[in-house]
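ok, trying the design again with the full structure, not the truncated one.
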């Protein structure tokens, strides 16, 4: 356990890095990269590179290896064992809770070494797809709607855990999932009724969106008519909500792997970051030569040359990219520290506060307008999440078992964004 005096610092830093991550990503999306001097705002083109933003996330996750290396150096060159050490060092794990192996019954698990590490490429693939879809969806919606829609994750994690991991959910937990879905729907409705004026990406064809969803190289991408702003918002919400299917699959895969193997959480993040970055770059290269280098694909999501020009030519994008990488690495580090030092439930509560802060900052920066309907959706999201995590009691006592329900996953899933 971390010293009690450090817990407020860990919580504050987790909240700060989490809020910065989402806001910085949205800040990138608002940066003009072409026709910036046009008198008509509709002719200006903003930064739309979701694949690059996915790569940024994986670079940030790879930064966890710096922490691993730092603990190893300290452990090697100091007389007291305070740094990063093997799993067998129980005393060190007590001093550094984030270094404990994930899961329960560690004695039944074998270390994840050698070729077994390649299994972590499976959740990395899910991470690539889910993160890219969410980055595309963020182009169409406000930052707060993006963050709230991600609350649908608990639904898919719940369903997949019951189906694949044989977890058991009680009636009040299923009702909580229904409430979460209702909240997500209301948030999406709020965005469609009063679309965000800042979220006006360059119109994309439905075929191109399907290509992105499938991540398949195809030459059928073509331009179609402009999508109305309200429909863009609905598409963005659906893409973000749909991305939670892949994120939930990632969490379930991680849980399944960690039931069999023992590995430190920072190494899990580091390996997934490495595999994810390599796979993202390989896929980006293939899509660039098959789609991005064509006439229809020019300036699109898969134009690697244009993406490199935008990142290197515009200082605001380059600086924000570095800050996003740092914030993602910091969010993983402090998030794992909070989970180990307090509880997974506490971390869920803190992450709810993260959504609230993102909303407040977005309003202050005039990135979106105030919507009462969005408040209703947010309240339902918070209540459903708290009810699912047993933070609040169910109003119908008959739905609640006397014994406390087992956690959905043995450990809180590793947060990546």
């Amino acid at each position: 356990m971390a010293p009690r005096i450090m817990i407020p610092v860990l919580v504050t830093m987790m909240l700060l890095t989490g809020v910065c991550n989402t806001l910085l990503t949205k800040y990138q999306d608002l940066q003009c990269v072409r026709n910036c001097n046009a008198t008509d705002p509709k002719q200006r083109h903003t930064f739309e590179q979701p694949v690059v933003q996915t790569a940024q996330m994986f670079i940030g996750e790879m930064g966890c290896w710096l922490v691993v290396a730092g603990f190893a150096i300290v452990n090697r060159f100091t007389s007291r064992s305070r740094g990063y050490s093997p799993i067998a060092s129980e005393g060190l794990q007590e001093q550094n809770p984030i270094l404990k192996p994930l899961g329960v019954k560690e004695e039944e698990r074998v270390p994840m070494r050698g070729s077994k590490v390649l299994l972590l490429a499976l959740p990395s693939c899910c991470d690539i797809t889910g993160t890219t879809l969410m980055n595309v969806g963020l182009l169409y919606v406000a930052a707060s709607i993006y963050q709230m829609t991600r609350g649908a994750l608990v639904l898919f994690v719940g369903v997949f855990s019951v189906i694949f991991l044989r977890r058991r959910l009680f009636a009040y937990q299923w009702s909580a999932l229904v409430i979460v879905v209702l909240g997500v729907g209301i948030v999406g409705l709020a965005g469609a009724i009063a679309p965000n004026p800042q979220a006006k990406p360059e119109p994309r064809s439905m075929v191109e969106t399907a290509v992105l969803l499938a991540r398949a190289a195809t030459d059928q991408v073509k331009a179609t008519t402009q999508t109305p702003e309200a429909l863009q918002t609905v598409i963005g919400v659906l893409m973000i909500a749909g991305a939670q299917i892949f994120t939930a699959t990632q969490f379930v895969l991680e849980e399944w792997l960690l039931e069999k193997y023992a590995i430190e959480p920072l190494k899990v993040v580091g390996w997934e970051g490495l595999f994810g970055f390599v796979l993202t770059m390989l896929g980006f290269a293939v899509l660039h030569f098959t789609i991005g280098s064509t006439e229809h694909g020019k300036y699109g999501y898969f134009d690697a040359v244009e993406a490199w020009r935008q990142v290197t030519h515009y200082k605001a994008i380059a600086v924000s990219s570095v800050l996003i990488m740092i914030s993602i690495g910091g969010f993983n580090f402090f998030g794992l520290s909070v989970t180990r030092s307090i509880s997974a439930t506490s971390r869920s509560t803190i992450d709810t506060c993260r959504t609230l802060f993102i909303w407040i900052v977005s309003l202050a920066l005039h990135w979106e307008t105030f919507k009462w309907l969005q408040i209703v959706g947010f309240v339902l999201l918070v209540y459903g999440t708290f009810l699912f995590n047993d933070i609040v009691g169910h109003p119908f006592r008959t739905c609640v078992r006397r014994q406390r329900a087992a956690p959905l996953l043995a450990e809180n899933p590793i947060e990546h964004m």
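Keeping the full-length input from now on. The mean pLDDT is 76.
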